[in-house]
Every structure is written in structure tokens, then in C-alpha cells.
């Protein structure tokens, strides 16, 4: 069998580990892997080539994705997916492993439903916002990167007695923000799913901290927070309360870097499992982790709207910031 593999959407550390595992497990089972470059854009353009085992040497520890990634506006339209399916057929690719997030899985689901392409999904996004899995590739690495950065910011915050607003990634999900805040002992965290996520609540929290004698504070802000991005919240606090604060947007620093051991291990496990299942004739699934165990979900589950809130960890942040 010829198996295609692509990475799509935002890059995430650990994607290379998954690519390597797909290639080498396929090799072990006698299948051939083709690498499709730049996600669905490359698929539409026929930008694909055989990906041999030796091409995956020394990629396990590298961030990003050797296959490159892209966002592809055409893929939202059925007529373009017809062309994509034709490219796969012309190359003799019968199965497709898609490493990406929610959007990438939606595209795979459509390809399989409309054109019978056997698809397998491996969760790759630093947001960790997919239903049916407690882990996605890149989350653990991005979390550790953000924590390391904020530890440095904490030193200067406490030396100057200053408030820092630190923006982390997460357009629709507070998962990264809340875990980061908990791991670096932030005084507050603003994130889209928060029950008491308001500017007023933040001001009252900072006030009571001040009255308790806290002179420096770190507030972690998810980029998709409803009160606004860190820069806007900072401007408002300066204007209303004359606070001497600083805003740091961690931005793309969080995406890059060598994947953590955990992301390498799950990339490897999911890559192997995807190929083993395709080899057994399974199709239309995506892999995940629940309570430490490797699990599979039907790809169609991605169509059900299911928010993945970060539980009550956000509340712990404020309890521990006393
Ligand atoms: P992620 O996979 O990280 O969630 P995106 O949401 O940007 O990233 O999706 C990646 C790509 O997948 C999009 O650029 C598009 O090509 C394709 N895609 C996303 N959603 C759909 C959809 N509903 N139907 C078809 N293709 C989609």
C-alpha cells in the first residue's frame, strides 16, 4: 500500500517524531510512504514525493515539520477536494495520515466521506483543544517553553515590584494559558472559557493582592481571551489605574524548539499506531490519549461541536496566588 503523510495547520513540536514513526512502521510492514509538502496546499498542487526511511534520520529531536505546513483556503470547497482526491489516485496513494488540529481533521473527514480516501488523524497542535484526547503533539513542549520564559519574567517582575501581563497562544482555548499559569504560580489567568473572566474581576483580584502586600504580579492572558489581548488589557489598566506594568507577548517563541520527551514519545506511538491500523484495513479514525492509554476516535467525532475547557484548574490558580 502507498500511504501519504502530511502536516497541516499550525506547526507543533513532535510532528517530526510522528512523520518518522509513520515512515518506519510502514517500512517494517512493507508499505511505501509518500510525503506531501505544505499540507493540503501541496496535495492540491501534487507537491509530493516518496519519503524513505533514511530521509527521517535526525528529525526526531527537531521542532517544526520537515514536510512544511500551510493553511489552504481552497480546501473548504468540495470542488477542490475533488482535485485533491484525483491527485492521490493518480499517484496510487490509498491512505492518508494527517497530522494537525481540528481543521485538518475536518478536511480529512471530508476527503474520506466524499472520495473514499482512507484517512487517519494524529493530533498535532500546541493548543490541546481536540475532543476525545487529553493530549496533542506540541502542547507539552509549548507549555514548558512558556513556563521557562515566565520564570525569567518573574525575576524582573519581583525585582521591580511590577505587574506583567504575559500573552500565550490559544485563540479559542485556555488550555495552554491555564496550565502555564498554574505551573508558574501566576496571580491570575484570563482565558476564553473562564467563568469569572472579566476586566472588573481582574482589577479586584489585583487590588486584593496589593492589599495583602504583593508588589509584583504575573497575569497570563490567552490570546483569544474575551477581555481583549494582553496589550489592550494593559493599556486599559494603565489608563484606569496608572499602573506601572509591562506586556510581553510570547508569540511564536512557543511554537518552536526541540520537542519534549513526552511529545517525542507520543508522536512515535501515534505514528506507529496509525500505520498498524491502516495496515489492518481500519480507516476514518484519529488517535489520542485518555488517562494514559492510547485511544482512537471515529474521525466524524470532529464534526460534533465539543468545547474542551481546561476544567477547574483556573480556579486553582487564584487559590494558590494568595
Ligand atoms: P488546524 O488543523 O491546526 O486546526 P486550520 O483550522 O487552519 O488548522 O486547518 C488547516 C487546514 O485544513 C485549513 O487551511 C484548510 O485547508 C483545511 N480545513 C480546515 N477546516 C476545514 C473544513 N471544515 N473543511 C475542509 N477543509 C478544512
From TrEMBL:
EC number: 2.7.1.11
Binding site for Mg(2+): 102
Any single GO BP term: canonical glycolysis
Pathways per UniProt: Carbohydrate degradation; glycolysis; D-glyceraldehyde 3-phosphate and glycerone phosphate from D-glucose: step 3/4
Residues where substrate binds: 125-127, 162, 169-171, 223, 246, 252-255
Family: Belongs to the phosphofructokinase type A (PFKA) family. ATP-dependent PFK group I subfamily. Prokaryotic clade 'B1' sub-subfamily.
Name of the protein in its database record: ATP-dependent 6-phosphofructokinase
Organism lineage: Bacteria, Pseudomonadati, Acidobacteriota, Holophagae, Holophagales
Encoding gene (name): pfkA
